[in-house]
Amino acid sequence: MVPNPPGSGYDITARVLANTLDTAGIARGIEVFNLPGGGGVVALRRLAYERGNGRLAMMMGLGVVGAQSATGTQVTLQEMTPIARLVQEPAVIVVTRDSPYRDLDALVSAWRADPAEMVIGGGSSIGGPDHLATMLVADAIGVAPVTVAYRRYDGGGDLLAAILGREVAFGMSGLSEYANQIAEGQLRALAVTSAEPVAQLPAPTMRSAGVDTVFNNWRGIVAPPDLADSDAESIRALIARLHEYPAWASARTRFGWTDAYLSGTAFKTFMREESDRWASVLAGLGLRR
């Protein structure tokens, strides 16, 4: 189950994962379906309803952590059965190829001059990775996050149309969602939020361009609550085998993902820490409900 629309980062990851599992002969016939809504909260509630179902799992990540913090939902990731963290990736600032912002300095200057008029598009809701990355960058350049004109689109496909249609000044998105458009020259990348440069991306890091921000989104898999130990371990074993498969390593390279494998109890601890961390960040930025 994917908690976002087709074409989103979660969707791409889930379909690449399912295809690799099938190609490797690790697991055949995995169905991937989308249940968007509430930044992932709708799918999270569905997962909770499927208590004990060992044939269902959900692709998730920082966006769902942020959504549960921002919305205050009573259903949380801590109730779910942790399977594994898979990958992480940075966010990237993208503009149209003919945008007047030729580099990050030009964009930052315009943003500081008139924050209310600088409309930024993201494919995630409040608390999601595109929103969080935007707010962290704003804070780093001295723009108050509460003044940011962030416009939320329903996933990467809708956001791409908005960028190309010049509905927004720039887009903030995960690298994998627009890697092809950047490579083809349809979009220009102004900066990436990783600590180190990304080999396949012709853009500086935020820090090297003078903005002290490092941010990485991550993705993983959780299953319904109260899963039998045998079912949980069976799914974890599939993902452990996938992690060692060369085609999965190739997919990570192709999409600009970094290996972030973490399984079982360690992943559960990580999710709790991330939930506490981002709830604190949202509160500190004045953005938590």
UniProtKB/TrEMBL annotation:
Pfam families the record matches: TctC
Organism superkingdom: Bacteria
Matches recorded under InterPro entries: BUG, Bug_dom1
Family: Belongs to the UPF0065 (bug) family.
Name listed for the protein in its UniProt record: C4-dicarboxylate ABC transporter substrate-binding protein
